[in-house]
User: What shape does this take?
Amino acid sequence: MSYEVNIVYFKNYTESSGSYKFLHKDYLGSILSISDEAGNKIEQRHYDAWGNLTHLQVNGGAIMTDENQIRDFLSNGGLLVDRGYTSHEHFAEVGLIHMNGRLYDPLLRRFLNADENIQDMFNTQNYNKYGYVLNNPLMFNDPSGEFIPLLAAAIGWIVSNAAAIATAAAIGAAVGLAAYTVGVLVTGSKWSFVAALKATFWGGISGAVTFGIGSIFSSAAQTFGNAILQAAAHGVAQGTLSLMQGASFKQAFIAGALGSLGASAWG
Assistant: This one.
């Protein structure tokens, strides 16, 4: 059964027809309750933040909260489906959760084998190869057991570098406004508040993007190949920003790439 599934069809080989059961999940994908076709609640579960089953009710019976009682019930195959926390498969007999790529222990709050991937070199949690979802289980889940999705890593990098990004954006905004003002003075055209605001906004975006690219390449060895890759990244970024403003991609690409190469040469 795929962990994304919300409807399950049950059929015993001795029966002529089966029935559908509906899985009700939270935002992390954990199965909190199961109902039948009539909407009757068959099972209700509650997991703590790390995946330990702490409360269990079956067919409207008494709510089980005792750890040993729950473990014995699970070991005897009492649950309708063997998936639960983040919709992954539970090995109740040994207290582990099969997260596809690796086995996870909710008591230790750790995987039993190491993650081979480092998604964000700027986040120290990524160097804990046995850690689960950057030690933030209420925010993320790990469908494959191998790595946090790229978006999560990007969010982590943004949060950890928020101050530096804000500073770069502020500098870029100031440069954008100054460039527009100088242009107005040189050409003798009329100063426009809307145009000035636009120049400030795009200047801030450009500053933040430039900082991000520079941060990615700053930890890499300063080789000619890396300088070319960094120049290409800056060129694409500046060209895209220019295109979004209705200007030329080519000219902005060339300017961004040459500026990056110049900075690397003087670096």
About this structure: Residues 159-266 form one domain. The two ends are 54 Å apart (CA to CA). The chain has a mean pLDDT of 85. The chain is about 40% helix and 15% strand.
